[in-house]
Design goal:
With 220 residues, the protein is mostly beta strands. It folds into 2 domains: 3-107, Immunoglobulins (Immunoglobulin-like), CATH 2.60.40; 121-219, Immunoglobulin-like. It is 0% helix and 51% strand. Pfam families: ig. This is Immunoglobulin-like beta-sandwich domain-containing protein.
Length: 220
């Protein structure tokens, strides 16, 4: 529904924030595609796209779109933090607040230009008995476990549980010619069940991650 069919008394000045999302994911393999979608609860159908610059100021991208905008193919130039704003093209006084930020990250490329990386592994180690489990992991509630992340090439790792969930940042330490990070889960609960992947990166604030590790399914 367009804004023209709504009570104009509701549209004087700045309105509620729209929601910006990425489909199928905000983690985008290099040269693949992603669709940015902006949704307004107040009926705005036309949106502006903004991107944060190096000093975290918003810059209008000269992109105006209806509901969604495709990035295809994904390149290094497209990574960064995006926001959107709904507006009424025929009325300069009708516009929304700017949305919350959406971080778009490219995977499968190095910051040094050496091409595709697949250099992270993830495993689970039980406290008792000590030893790695298989790639399909059945864990009992109240177990004490340690999740291990190893990379021969990148020091920092990002743990991601399931698709589109927020990530956890870990700093690796030197280990057997590469780097290793770990987190302890004690005790394990049903909330820890899910599919985990890890990515390598050269920096906590990098928009460039390695290819993901093979998935690890943890069943509790």
């Amino acid at each position: 529904m367009g804004t023209s069919g709504l009570d104009h008394s509701l549209f004087t000045g700045v309105f509620d924030k729209p929601t910006l999302s990425a489909w199928p994911s905000s983690l985008v393999p290099i040269e693949e595609h992603v669709t940015l979608k902006c949704l307004s609860q107040l009926g705005f159908e036309v949106f502006r796209l903004f991107k944060e610059n190096e000093v975290h100021n918003l810059e209008f991208q000269n992109i105006i779109f209806r509901h969604s905008f495709d990035i295809n193919p994904m390149t290094m130039a497209h990574v960064g933090t995006y926001r959107c704003q709904g507006f009424e093209p025929n009325d300069p006084y009708k516009f929304s607040e700017i949305s919350e930020s959406l971080l778009i990250i490219v995977t499968g490329e190095t910051t040094h230009g050496r091409g595709i990386l697949h250099c992270s592994t993830i495993s689970i180690e039980k406290a008792f008995p000590l030893g790695p489990t298989s790639s399909s992991n059945k864990i009992r509630s109240d177990d004490d476990i340690k999740m291990l992340f190893r990379s021969p090439c990148l020091r920092r790792s990002f743990l991601l549980k399931d698709v589109n969930e927020s990530h956890m940042y870990l700093v690796g330490k030197p280990y057997a010619g590469g780097f290793q990070a770990n987190i302890s889960l004690s005790p394990v609960t049903s909330a820890h069940a899910g599919t985990y992947r890890c990515y390598g990166s050269s920096s906590q604030h990098s928009y460039v991650w390695s290819d993901p590790s093979d998935p690890l399914d943890m069943v509790v």
